[in-house]
Automatic annotation (TrEMBL):
This is DUF4259 domain-containing protein. It comes from the Bacteria. Pfam families: DUF4259 (PF14078). It comes from Flavivirga algicola. The lineage of its organism: Bacteria, Pseudomonadati, Bacteroidota, Flavobacteriia, Flavobacteriales.
Amino acid sequence: MGNWGIKALESDNGLDFIGFLEEFYAEKLELSLSEIITILIKADFLSDDRNNIDYLYDNTAISLAELFLMFKEKGELDYDNEDERVSLRKKTQFKSDKESIEFTLQYLTDIKNEKPDEDGEREFVELWKESDSYDKWQEHLNGLITGLKQNIM
């Protein structure tokens, strides 16, 4: 699965997500949730169709929620990355709007409710169910959902 913790940012795909955002936001001081969602859809990290279910999309949606809530809670982004030249840690603001938060919330709710793909399962959830950390991961997912709900304007 490429994870070393229960968070999506604690995975190989999470690091790819961070690397992608660091490149896109290298010259900007402010992050925008709606802009991030748009660029993630264009780069095929996310889909704008929630019926298009994919392991990468699920990991990206959770990573995005983790990053957004991290900034809202701490006022900064604090994640593992050895390359300080280009860093999201230097960002001073993370703008959001109701629609973008709701979009992210719906993704996470579909994951929690195990909305199946065309094969009748949701690979991302199935892999977590097979791990010893499923209950902790589920608690983490529920916490992200609660946090997003609290940030809807």
